């Protein structure tokens, strides 16, 4: 069997996965705090026909003969560039300008991390994510308030009805990782710590190594539609040219089968 059939098929499989990644990016173009993914490719095994440096007829072979056996997707990496900010005017919408994640408590008691700052109040006044996951540490907004203020360094103050001076009710901290690309994507804009992400380091917004907070704004997806469309076209053409290689290999086999002695 001609090697090209199997080699080109690995290229088609890799481009199919690449298209899946691009489709997910485009599907989440309006997801708050979404971070796009990128497929990284690499070549796979090589079949050695002649060793480099081997001796043949008293001379040394300078290059040898190695035939590659295709390509594969080595990794699908999250790209943590900052998305565009959108002004909402909502007092509980918060965007991170720079590095950091909000920490939330998941239903099983573990911690999750998100860039989506579209917070709401639950029945007890706690600030929670759109899925009801409370901020960690908790921030509780009391009843009978007329204004909520969230400073750039995360201090949460409220102005209660009948009062002329604000009252501090909590602080929103940020979490950063040595390798955010190593975080595990859990869906719902939530990431989880892994052994490759490093341990979470909590700090105050605006301090060294952490971004600042902007109240009344949301961070949009960092997906660039034009870039994804170009990647999709390139992936489609790569898939097509690999299918052409399979077709050519098949035609070569057909010619071989038709040889007459």
Please compute the radius of gyration using only Cα atoms.
27 Å
Describe the strand arrangement of the main beta sheet, using strand numbers.
13-14-15
Mean pLDDT: 93
Distance between the termini: 20 Å
Order of helices and strands, N to C?
Answer: HEEEEEEEEEEEEEEEEEEEEEH
> What's the β-strand tally?
21
- pLDDT under 50 segments (min length 5)? none
Number of domains: 2
The chain-level structural class is: alpha+beta
Structure, explained:
The protein is α+β, with helices and mostly antiparallel strands and 261 residues long. The chain folds into 2 domains: 3-80 and 223-257, no CATH class; 85-219, no CATH class. The protein is 22% helix and 32% strand. The chain is built from 2 helices and 21 strands. It has helices at residues 3-27, 225-257; strands spanning 37-43, 46-50, 55-56, 59-60, 65-68, 71-78, 85-87, 94-97, 102-105, 111-114, 120-121, 127-128, 145-150, 155-160, 167-171, 174-176, 184-187, 190-192, 201-203, 212-215, 217-219. The strands form 10 sheets. The chain has a 3-stranded antiparallel β-sheet with strand order 13-14-15, with no helix packed on it. The chain has a two-stranded antiparallel sheet with strand order 1-6. Helix 1 runs antiparallel to helix 2. The longest helix is centred in the last third of the chain and has 33 residues, at 225-257. The model has no long low-confidence stretch (mean pLDDT 93).
Summarize the structure.
With 261 residues, the protein is of the alpha+beta class.
Set out the fold topology:
Blueprint lengths: L2 H25 L9 E7 L2 E5 L4 E2 L2 E2 L4 E4 L2 E8 L6 E3 L6 E4 L4 E4 L5 E4 L5 E2 L5 E2 L16 E6 L4 E6 L6 E5 L2 E3 L7 E4 L2 E3 L8 E3 L8 E4 L1 E3 L5 H33 L4
Helix pairs in contact: 1-2
């Amino acid at each position: 069997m001609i090697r090209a059939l199997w080699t080109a098929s690995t290229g088609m499989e890799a481009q199919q996965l690449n298209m899946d990644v691009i489709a997910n990016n485009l599907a989440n173009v309006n997801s708050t705090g979404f971070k796009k993914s990128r497929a990284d490719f690499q070549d796979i095994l090589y079949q050695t026909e002649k060793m480099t440096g081997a001796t043949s007829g008293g001379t040394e072979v300078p290059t040898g003969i190695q035939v590659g056996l295709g390509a594969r997707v080595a990794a699908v990496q999250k790209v943590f560039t900052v998305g565009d900010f959108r002004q909402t005017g909502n007092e509980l919408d918060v965007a991170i300008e720079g590095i950091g994640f909000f920490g939330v408590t998941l239903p099983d008691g573990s911690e999750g991390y998100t860039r989506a700052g579209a917070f709401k109040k639950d029945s007890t006044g706690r600030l929670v994510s759109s899925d009801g996951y409370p901020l960690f540490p908790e921030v509780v907004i009391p009843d009978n308030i007329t204004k909520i203020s969230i400073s750039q360094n995360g201090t949460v103050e409220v102005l209660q009805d009948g009062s002329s001076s604000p009252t501090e009710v909590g602080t929103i901290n940020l979490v950063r990782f040595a390798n955010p690309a190593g975080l595990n994507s859990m869906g719902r804009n939530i990431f989880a710590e892994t052994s490759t992400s490093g341990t979470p380091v909590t700090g105050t917004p605006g301090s060294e190594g952490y971004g600042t907070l902007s109240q009344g704004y949301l961070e949009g997806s960092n997906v660039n539609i034009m870039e994804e469309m170009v990647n999709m076209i390139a992936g489609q053409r790569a898939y097509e040219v690999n299918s052409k290689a399979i077709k050519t290999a098949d035609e070569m086999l057909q010619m071989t089968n038709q040889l007459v002695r």
